[in-house]
UniProtKB/TrEMBL annotation:
Source organism of the structure: Pyruvatibacter mobilis
Keywords: Membrane, Transmembrane, Transmembrane helix
Protein name according to UniProt: Uncharacterized protein
Lineage: Bacteria, Pseudomonadati, Pseudomonadota, Alphaproteobacteria, Hyphomicrobiales
InterPro entries: Invertase/methylesterase_inhib
Annotated TM spans: 13-32
Amino acid sequence: MTEQEVASATLSWWQYVLFLAPHIVPISLYFLSRQSQKRDRRNNAKLHQFQSGVQSEIDHSLASLKAAASKLKDVAFASRTGASLTRDIESCNEAVVSAGDQLMEALATADESAFADGNDWVQIFTDTYDQCLTSIQKALSSPHDPKRREILQETAKMIETRIRFVRARVENQIMDCMK
């Protein structure tokens, strides 16, 4: 066999590439799509678990807290004075404490959950919650303070701001689960 016959009988590296390319591309696409499907299933499961276990509790708690903030606003704008106003503020205080504790428990559940990123969920509400309770106690302790209604309005605004912040955090978590 001559050199020319040997050279024509063997394939060059480029010919190997051209021969294998139609076979390699579909195989690699298959494996990439399988990896993508696994990731999507895992993210969907994480999203479902977050929504059913954590988000529903947080949303319920936020609704209670929003109702308490609305009650605070109503009391701040009411024309009552004296003992009647004090009773209303005490009622608001109980509503805020109940809803706040409920939200703290829901956020603690998020901290412990494997489906929620980070472990600082409780921290996003603790400081504001303490400030709100302090403000309400200040309004209760000074029955003749002319700024009493302003304090209640500011407290309601503070609660509403924190509600928006917690909701944004939940939405960000959902977006992260969908990635």
